[in-house]
Amino acid sequence: MTPLQERPLIVGFKEIDKGARDILLVGGKGASLADLGNVPGVRVPAGFNVTVEAYERFLEVNNLRTPIKELEVLSEPWIKLELERLKLGGEREGHETKLSELLERQKKLEDTIFAQGERIRAEMERGKVPPEVERAIRSHYLMLCQETGTKDAPVAVRSSATAEDMPTASFAGQQETFLNVRGADNVVEAVKKCWISLYGKRAIYYRNAHRANFLKEAGKSSSDDPVFLHSRVHLCAVVMQMVNAKAAGVVFTVHRTTGWPGILIEANWGLGESVVGGKVIPDSWVVDPHTWAIVEKNIGTKDKMVVYNAEGGTEWVETPEPMRDIFSLTDEQVIALARENKA
């Protein structure tokens, strides 16, 4: 863990000595990128982490800690009801009326909880990024532009929470990511939007639900452990060079459906957002990790794809008809990806 008095505002992916692998400083995604970036032969796009220290300073100067603690207080009755519901869930028969009543009470509490979340988001939107944080972001973005030889280099600004990528809670998709962000002003604004996304309805509900489940499994009451408390989950923003991909997707080193230790690859034309978001039926391949043979492949409909917008950001477009009928990756590319990810 990086000592509090020494915590930097910015950490590069390879700056291990500054805390690049410290999940409490750079979040789960940031720490994973540091691990990947320090593996010989693995190519990780250039970038840097706007650390939890920057987020904490933003909260401090804008007096946001009090409304966040109020959100915790409002969440506790819901969590207690959820603990009760989880206990009854294993004995559903004969408890249908009770379960229905619990859900109705939770729904009423959710309205108040989410309203507080909206108040926090509104205050964060009005809040000012501390000058030293803004200077640090701008300086490192300029260095990234120089490193990549690109004026106003397009970057992805990605949320990296301190509670994500855990065995029991991935936090996948709970906070926002912004793609094809260009220019220092827009990068600073995108970092701020990542911080704000920590208090969206989806993220608040996810933390409350996982807190209840954790307490149930641990046999603790709601006041015995800080895990998943809103004030204890912090956010780092990852800023990394965008790759304007011809095709992109996801590699699973264990088949996500069957559990078979084969390598499942899914891909679509354009940026990977269409595959990650589950918005299209992608092409898919299954590779045997012992023989490196493709044992199954299916061509997806791929009717839409995500591409750069000329004004910044991304947009969905119709996939040209000829591209829908051919695989987005060659067999050679599929096998190469399988080998790299299983190494």
Text of the CATH class of the largest domain: Alpha Beta
Total domains: 2
Q: How does CATH name the architecture of the largest domain?
A: 2-Layer Sandwich
**Count of separate DSSP helical elements:** 10
Order of SSEs, N→C?
EHEHHHHEEHHEEEHEEEEHH
Mean pLDDT: 90
Give the CATH superfamily of the largest domain.
ATP-grasp fold, A domain
Q: What is the strand arrangement across the widest sheet?
A: 1-2-5-3-4
Rg of Cα set:
22 Å
Largest sheet geometry: 5 strands, antiparallel
In what range is the share of β-strand residues? 15-25%
Question: Helix- and strand-based class?
Answer: alpha+beta
Fraction of residues in H or I helices: 40-55%
Account of the protein in words:
- This protein has 343 residues and is an alpha+beta fold.
- The chain has 2 domains: 1-242, Dna Ligase, domain 1, CATH 3.30.1490; 247-342, D-amino Acid Aminotransferase, Chain A, domain 1, CATH 3.30.470.
- The chain has 10 helices and 11 strands.
- The protein has helices spanning 23-37, 52-61, 65-89, 96-126, 131-148, 184-196, 201-218, 273-276, 321-324, 331-342, and strands at residues 10-12, 47-50, 155-161, 177-181, 235-241, 247-252, 263-269, 283-287, 294-298, 304-308, 314-318.
- A 5-stranded antiparallel β-sheet has the order 1-2-5-3-4.
- Strand 10 (304-308) and strand 11 form a beta hairpin.
- Helix 3 (65-89) runs antiparallel to helix 4.
- The chain is globular, with a radius of gyration of 22 Å.
- Mean pLDDT is 90; it is low at 165-171.
